[in-house]
Amino acid sequence: MTTVEPGMSTSPSMARDNGTAPPVWLRAVPSRARRKPPLSIERIVDAAVIVLDELGAEGLTMRCLAQRLDVTATALYWHVRTKDDVLDLAVDQIFGDVPVPDASDNWLEDIRLLARAWRGAMLDHPWAPGLVGRPMLGPNVLARTEFLQSALVRGGCSGLHLAVTTRLLANYVIGASLTEATWRRTGAPETRAAARAHIVARADAYPTLDASGHLDDTRWDDELLFEEALNGILQTAARR
Fold first, then answer.
1. Among 112, 99, 96, 197, CA closest to 152
2. I need a labelling partner for 111 at 20 to 30 A (CA). Which of 2, 78, 88, 104 fits?
3. How far, rounded to the nearest angstrom, does the alpha carbon of residue 62 sit from its chain's CA centroid?
4. pLDDT per residue as tens digits for the range 200-210
5. Are residues 117 and 235 both part of a single domain?
6. Contact (Cβ atoms closer than 8 angstroms) between residue 151 and residue 107
7. Residue 36 lies in a domain
8. Which residues contact 210 (CB under 8 A, 6 or more apart)?
């Protein structure tokens, strides 16, 4: 007589020998590793960020996202209504990568820390700067905007000046990141060097651009230009 220890799997032939299915305790247990994790907003957004990093905003489709998650496109619509929902959630998740500094006695340095980290996050995800013009109401975006404005208030900004300086700083970081990301995507430094050579070769037409080192990375790199422009904006805010 064949005996089966509890927890052992049985073959189909064993079940057929006595005409009944084996007791539940003797049936093979499906591997948990083969089970799909339940679909959630978090899984959808994580997958969307990966697709966006690989293909950009133009390459993200609901069908592509569903394939990445190994689900049907219909399943996605239980959690998000449109691709726009996915983009909004993805942008807010990227803002979550920006650390919120501890408020210090130096409000200018607090803003510098935030702006540098914000730029870094945008450059890590080159598709993100182009989407930041969308309604920015996610919790991560609002938390960092709150920190920015609170630092400006500690520096003496209020009313219209506060609103203008907030927009100036935000637009500067987004614009600088978008420009840098575009240059990187189009083949810099080779493309940048070719653009600089074009200016130098036509110095009589562009004497100021030639003399100022416009697009000359050997003279002014993106890091230096970002920091100096940020300092200029903050100095203007501090003088008010």
1. 112
2. 88
3. 18
4. 999 999 999 99
5. yes
6. yes
7. no
8. 199, 200, 203
State the chain's maximal CA–CA distance in angstroms: 101
Residue 126 covered by a domain = yes
Considering 64, 95, 126, which residue would you say is the last residue of a domain? 95
Tokens of 154: 């500690």
pTM for this prediction: 0.77
The tally of domains found in the chain comes to: 2
> Residues 98-124: what's their mean pLDDT?
95
Query: Is 28 within the bounds of a domain?
Result: no
Chain centroid offset of residue 233 CA: 25
Shortest CA distance to 232 belongs to which of 183, 187, 170, 169? 169
Full residue range of the structural domain in which residue 82 is found: 41-95
Question: Rounded to the nearest 10 degrees, what angle do helices 159-185 and 139-154 cross at?
Answer: 130
Q: Which long-range contacts (CB under 8 A, 24 or more apart) does 92-97 make?
A: 92/136, 92/138, 92/139, 92/140, 92/141, 93/45, 93/46, 93/49, 93/140, 94/49, 94/121, 94/122, 94/124, 94/125, 94/128, 95/121, 95/138, 95/140, 95/141, 95/144, 96/140, 97/121, 97/124
